[in-house]
Description:
Elements: H1 2-15, H2 18-44, H3 56-64, H4 70-102, H5 119-124, H6 129-143, H7 145-168, H8 174-177, H9 191-208, H10 229-257, H11 262-284, H12 301-325, H13 329-363
Helix pairs in contact: 1-2, 1-4, 2-7, 3-4, 6-7, 6-10, 7-9, 7-10, 9-11, 9-12, 10-11, 10-13, 11-13
Amino acid sequence: TAAVSLASLWTLTLALPQRLLRPAISAARAILVGALVVGYQWISRGVSSVGAPWWPGTWFADALAGQPTPGLAILVGSVVLLAWAFVVAFPQRYFALLTRLGAGEREAETDRRSRTLTRAERWLTPTGPERAAYGFAVAAFSDDRIVRGRLWPAALLPLGFAAFGYVAGGLGSLFVYGPTSVFEIPETQFHLSVLVVLLFCAQSLVQTLQFSDHARAAWVFGTLPEANTLGLQMGAQQALVLRVLAPLHVALAVVLAFQMPALDAAIHALFWFAVCAITTRVAALAYRRPPFSRQSDAFGAGARFIPLAASIPAGVLAILVQIIAFESRPRAVAVCLGLIGLSDVIGRLAVRISRRRRARPMLA
């Protein structure tokens, strides 16, 4: 597994131009991490997994018994292919790339169109320091090594769990089976698990916005007129909601649509989106420094433990709200829109209160 992962990343690094390399590496990391997580979940479901015909240990046992199987041939062939790749193919490509770089050949600059705010984003994001932090965050999503390497794997992890829930058959519509069925029947048993994973990842995503490869450049926030920490955090969090969480939940709705009616899938994904939006907003209020202002390659012990400890009770609270809301489709939609509106109100109030507190010493 480690060899395949390394070979995949190395292939992308040596084969793709700079313009395509960064998003491809982030996507490959997310896919590999998701495959590992979902794969181990799948393996642990069977009591006799070690004796299954697709388990490598069984292939060796069959070969020792004089009964080689196609699985063993595939494993040996894969090892030979990887050995050839690491010994011959990759080194040649690597030194050829060094020769090109030494000759002064450079790839085109990265496409900057992804950093441009759309008309909808300009309408949703208030002018001033908040919009500046929004634009800074959008650029960091694609250009910052630490942010990019942590953001997309964490964002796509819930999608892997939803796909696993679809395969296992545990994400049925709560409108069909009843909202209280999440604690009663196997057809809806994964709703709470996905909520817990979403809340954990939401908090981790906000943590990611605090670190950067370019933390020394955070002084630029101090040059903005009327800038305050909470306003900058709200701007970066808004970028997280619109650029990361919104596309993620569209993909979640597509996965859910394979197991329930399309309208029900859209409402379920909308509720998850509303919960993540208000969770990331509340989590962003806890930080007293501007976003992307910390230089670090690793989270501290508290940063690792707090999201995990908070996501379980928060997930239970969210599922209780969902049970109350999903008595009917109109009520569910109203609750979802109410949560999204509450998230916006919390952010605006926090910024307003912070500005007033900052203005009081100046008036005195």
